[in-house]
């Protein structure tokens, strides 16, 4: 009797675990990540972007949502984004959870983009990092290369979220080439020091062969040769790719805190 009870317990436990796992798989596969209301993407592009988003989600435990529209209902794009987030309650493993939300408005009167991070997205993609992402994707948006802009946003966000909060991911100190140069320089200094120390002390100086008794200065003359003036043009601020800025983080109407940044393009 006890053996039969044990067998049934194991069977029901296994069935419960399998059912729970199956429900999680179905839920993940049925998630919608792209809301292309403005119809900026082809079906093939949507599928490719969703593949990239799923990889991003598994790695960062954060959902990446893309929403395009041609009508923000008279709201600022920041407010419109917040309302859209509240309405759908996006989140990786819970409602209103870890999310990156990219909103693009192609309203004929004003084309805008707003990128926001919620929960873990807010922590690892703060306002400063969001501005760096926008620097990379805004030129694509200006050229109407929306697919390239969205792929760039996903990959760059993923790269930046690999660094702990507070670190500038574009710092030259983190670049592989810079670290290689430093390593070579340090190695060169060490080798040079070893060679210098192993060669003995150098005792010959500029005065070794100088006879003070039989040497004198006959005359001294200063001669002006030429003068060089370098002109540098002051760079202009007419950078189309950066567009008009707006945003920063905030709180949605539903009370969710977020990091953020926006541009016109």
Structure notes:
The protein has 265 residues and is α/β, with parallel strands linked by helices. It has a domain at 30-173 and 242-264: Diaminopimelate Epimerase, Chain A, domain 1, CATH 3.10.310. Helix content is 44%, strand content 15%. Strands 1, 2, 3, 4, 5, 6 and 7 form a seven-stranded mixed β-sheet that branches. A hairpin with a 2-residue loop joins β3 (99-107) and β4 (110-118). α5 packs antiparallel against α6. The longest helix is centred in the N-terminal third of the chain and has 28 residues, at 2-29. The radius of gyration is 31 Å and the shape is globular.
Question: What's the story with the biggest beta sheet?
Answer: 7 strands, mixed
Terminal CA distance reads 74 Å
User: CATH topology of the domain at 30-173 and 242-264, which one?
Assistant: Diaminopimelate Epimerase, Chain A, domain 1
- Give the ordered list of helices and strands: HEHEHEEHHHHEEE
Strand content: 15-25%
Q: In brief, what are we looking at here?
A:
The protein is 44% helix and 15% strand. The protein is an alpha/beta fold.
Features:
globular, about 260 residues, alpha/beta, Diaminopimelate Epimerase, Chain A, domain 1, seven-stranded mixed beta sheet, 7 helices
SSE layout and pairing:
Elements: H1 2-29, E1 34-36, H2 43-60, E2 63-69, H3 77-88, E3 99-107, E4 110-118, H4 120-124, H5 127-142, H6 146-160, H7 176-198, E5 245-246, E6 250-251, E7 257-264
Parallel strand pairs: 1-2, 2-3
Antiparallel strand pairs: 3-4, 4-7, 5-7, 6-7
């Amino acid at each position: 009797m006890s053996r039969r009870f044990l067998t049934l317990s194991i069977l029901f436990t296994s069935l419960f675990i399998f059912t729970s796992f199956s429900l999680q798989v179905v839920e993940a596969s049925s998630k919608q990540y792209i809301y292309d209301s403005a119809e900026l993407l082809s079906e093939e592009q949507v599928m490719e972007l969703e593949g990239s988003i799923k990889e991003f989600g598994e790695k960062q435990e954060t959902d990446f949502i893309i929403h395009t529209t041609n009508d923000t209902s008279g709201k600022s794009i920041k407010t419109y984004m917040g309302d859209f987030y509240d309405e759908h309650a996006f989140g990786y493993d819970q409602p209103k959870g870890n999310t990156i939300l990219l909103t693009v408005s192609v309203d004929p009167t004003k084309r805008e983009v707003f990128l926001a991070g919620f929960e873990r997205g807010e922590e690892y993609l703060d306002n400063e990092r969001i501005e760096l992402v926008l620097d990379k994707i805004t030129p694509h948006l200006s050229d109407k290369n929306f697919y390239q802009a969205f792929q760039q946003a996903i990959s760059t966000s993923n790269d930046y979220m690999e660094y702990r909060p507070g670190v500038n991911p574009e710092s030259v100190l983190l670049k592989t080439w810079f670290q290689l140069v430093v390593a070579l320089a340090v190695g060169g200094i060490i080798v040079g020091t070893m060679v210098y120390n192993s060669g003995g002390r150098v005792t010959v100086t500029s005065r070794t062969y100088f006879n003070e008794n039989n040497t004198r200065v006959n005359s001294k003359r200063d001669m002006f040769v030429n003068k060089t003036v370098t002109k540098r043009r002051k760079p202009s601020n007419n950078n189309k790719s950066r567009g008009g800025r707006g945003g920063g983080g905030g709180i949605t109407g539903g009370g969710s805190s977020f990091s953020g940044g926006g541009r016109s393009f």
